UniProtKB/TrEMBL annotation:
Name this protein carries in UniProt: Chemotaxis methyl-accepting receptor HlyB-like 4HB MCP domain-containing protein
Keyword Transmembrane helix attached: yes
Record flagged with keyword Transmembrane: yes
Stretches assigned to the Chemotaxis methyl-accepting receptor HlyB-like 4HB MCP domain: 13-83
Keywords: Membrane, Transmembrane, Transmembrane helix
UniProt-listed InterPro entries: HlyB_4HB_MCP
Listed Pfam families: 4HB_MCP_1
Ranges that cross the membrane: 20-39
């Protein structure tokens, strides 16, 4: 230990009561500091969660809807191609069956 710390300890001459009291006081101060820091972090996380809920989730939902719509366009386009092919070649059954009966 440095010389000034030794001099300070000799000067204070702490008895057991003061040592215990200072130890508990240090624990309480650390507990208060950690509690305030934790509450600050919880508040920051709450703000981030609010942003995710208000901004990101609706966008992700919209992307899912767009993905489904694009899949439907592809399915409908293929259905039209198959129906047109059946119509052109006079194939009975399948998607063009109603058109074939008119011929």
């Amino acid at each position: 230990m440095s010389m000034w710390v030794k001099a300070l300890l000799r000067r204070l001459k702490l008895n057991i009561r003061m040592k215990l009291l200072s130890g508990f006081l240090i624990v309480v101060v650390l507990l208060a500091f950690i509690s305030m820091y934790s509450l600050n972090q919880i508040n920051t996380m709450s703000e981030s969660a609010e942003e995710i809920d208000q901004v990101w989730v609706p966008g992700i939902t919209l992307l899912g809807t767009l993905n489904g719509d694009i899949s439907n366009v592809e399915r409908l386009a293929l259905s039209i191609i198959v129906e047109r092919w059946e119509w052109d070649y006079g194939i009975k059954g399948g998607l063009g069956a109603t058109h074939n009966q008119d011929r």
